[in-house]
Amino acid sequence: MSNTMLETTRIGLYPTPDQQQKLAVQFGCARWGFNNALALTQQTCREAGKSLSYHALAVRLPGLKQEFEWLKEADSQVLQQSLQNLALAFDGFFARRVRYPRFKSKHGRRSIQYPQRAKLEGNHIYLPKVGWVKGIVHRGIVGKFKTVTISRNACGQFHAAILTDTGLPMPSVSTAGKTLGIDVGLVDLAVTSDGSKFTNPRHIRICS
User: Fold this and answer.
1) In Å, how far from its chain's centre is CA 77?
2) What confidence tens digit (pLDDT) does each residue in 158-201 have?
3) Where are the domains of the chain?
4) How many CB atoms are closer than 10 A to CB 175?
5) Whole-number Å distance between alpha carbons of 86 and 76
6) Rounded-to-integer distance, Cα 187 and Cα 32, Å
7) Which of 81, 100, 144, 151 has a 20 to 30 A CA-CA distance from 116?
8) pLDDT 10s digits, 44-80
9) Rounded Cα gap, residues 97 and 53, in angstroms
10) In three state form, how does the secondary structure of 143-173 look?
């Protein structure tokens, strides 16, 4: 776990029609990879009584690309990250932090993650297999890129959430001289180690 502060900056993206098509390919391949891995994991759980690790899923990718050549249009790290997200989802489920992973739909919000090689210059962000995409950056982004999450909402708007390591030390959190643990979840926004719960606010999303 990092001992330095992480920060997320969200920016609006304005891809060209050609870039939108390329992003649609990335979204589709990542969704297919996630769903394919989830189906295999469910089958393995039924037949062998155990889940599959990220490594067990990732080693299948070269063979899948040979069988389904259109997968080669996807960035390799985008595919790998979709499998990593599934593995983390199962870890959270078995730890009783989140609900059982569900298949992803092609409707509604879509997202992919670039763990490396995305970069920002001025008001443009470089995305592998897509190119330099125009964005609106309202403030400076401090630190080293950790991941870049690209999303498209149901209204067709694109955004990038850039997670950076600021390099600043993580402040210690304590109450009355005691360390306070915080667990972030889906049902409750946060549950502290002293039993306090903070409800997750429900926002109405309006497309404009």
Assistant:
1) 12
2) 999 999 988 888 776 555 556 556 666 555 556 666 666 655 54
3) 4-169
4) 11
5) 16
6) 27
7) 100
8) 988 988 888 999 999 999 999 999 999 999 999 999 9
9) 18
10) CEEEEEEEEECCCCCEEEEEEEEEEEECCCC
